[in-house]
Design brief:
The protein has ten helices and 18 strands. Helix 3 links the parallel strand 3 and strand 4. The chain is globular. The mean pLDDT is about 95.
Length: about 350
């Protein structure tokens, strides 16, 4: 399936939704939905913005791009796979009037914020072409993360480590939308370890969310310069194994979360689930739905997940796909020279001991 064909399938889904809800048209404003609808179009300028830099309007008859004269040429030439998209261009100094201008022409329009639950539900059920892109993205992200980690020398700062990993991700054509590094005991005190000038003398944990074509993968790797660093990591893999097994059984996100919580109890860290979320369903956002005990979101084939159990001093995380056959495939697999551990048939990353 080409990008154009994938985009056409999604446009048809939206048009059916318009008919079912008696809507004349809908505005797509969010980056995640822009990328989903355009089969990977980059509708952003900076990573931090939630909204795209152009607005897509889908009516029962046509699809339009409304953007200012700065963004419109690039979006039309590079990011939109459908030749039938009609352009509504605005001067940059009238940027704030884009939606009002569309409503003057087309009447009062709904948008993807009002219909967030519909778009999210569509985003998490991956088409075969999306799953294939996800596999390529995951393998590239894991390779770049591990290559960066292997390049780190004892005594480098967290920021220097982040720079090495970021360069590797960009070199593979991936956008490092989140990059966390915890050196030495810092990983015992914080779960979101934004890089600092702290030096890695005993070891470090590196976590990434990498994006390409709108899809996001998450992964974590650990390097030890001292034999005691991340000493309980293998225990944590038992928690992750419980998450994988529960995901394979299907059920709901809440069922997986309950399995994770029980596994923490078994490894002697019964309260650690309270210290950080445990991950959940992923896709065009790093976490489309987080798992918790109240979550009744059903688990189905062709969905991706990133579970991220953690304890003081250790974290494990990879992105997985529940296949049409119902099994679990790891989208961010270890490269051939990264040490691994077998966990009930799943090949999991071990700590890389560099001393």
């Amino acid at each position: 399936m080409t990008r154009s064909e994938e985009c056409a399938v999604k446009v048809d889904k939206i048009k059916r939704m318009l008919e079912e809800n008696a809507l004349d048209g809908i505005l797509i404003k969010k980056q995640a939905n822009f990328s989903w609808l355009t089969a990977g179009g980059r509708g952003f300028i900076g990573f931090a913005g939630e909204n795209a830099c152009g607005v897509l309007l889908v009516t029962k008859e046509d699809i339009y791009l409304a953007a200012n004269n700065i963004e419109a040429p690039r979006l039309m030439a590079e990011e939109l796979p459908l030749e039938s998209v009609r352009l509504v261009q605005t001067e940059w100094w009238h940027d704030g009037a884009i939606v009002n201008n569309l409503e003057k022409e087309f009447g009062l329009l709904s948008d993807d914020t009002a219909l967030d639950s519909w778009f999210k539900a569509e985003r998490v059920h991956l088409l075969p072409a999306e799953a294939a892109r996800y596999e390529d993205l995951g393998a590239s992200a894991a390779y770049a993360l591990e290559k960066g980690c292997r390049s780190v020398k004892q005594g480098m700062t967290e920021m220097e480590i982040a720079g090495l990993i970021s360069a590797g991700l960009w070199g593979m054509g991936l956008e490092p939308i989140t990059l966390l590094v915890a050196a030495d005991d810092r990983s015992r005190h914080y779960r979101h370890y934004v890089p600092t000038g702290k030096k890695a003398e005993e070891g470090f944990i590196a976590s990434i969310c990498a994006r390409k074509g709108g899809l996001v993968v998450s992964a974590t790797r650990i390097v030890a310069f001292h034999p005691d660093f991340a000493g309980e990591y293998k225990k944590l893999l038992e928690v992750e194994q419980a998450a994988f097994e529960a995901t394979e059984k299907s059920g709901t996100l809440g069922d997986v979360f309950d399995s994770i919580r029980s596994a923490y109890q078994k490894i002697g860290h019964g309260e650690e689930w309270r210290k950080h979320h445990q991950g959940g369903m992923t896709g065009y956002l790093a976490r489309e739905y987080r798992g918790d005990s109240s979550s009744r979101i059903p688990i189905a084939a062709s969905q991706a997940f990133a579970w991220n159990p953690s304890i003081p001093g250790a974290k494990c995380e990879d992105t997985i796909l529940k296949t049409e056959g119902g099994d679990i495939r790891i989208l961010t697999p270890c490269s051939k020279d990264w040490p691994t551990v077998d966990m009930n048939g799943w090949v999991r990353p071990d700590v890389l001991y560099a001393f």
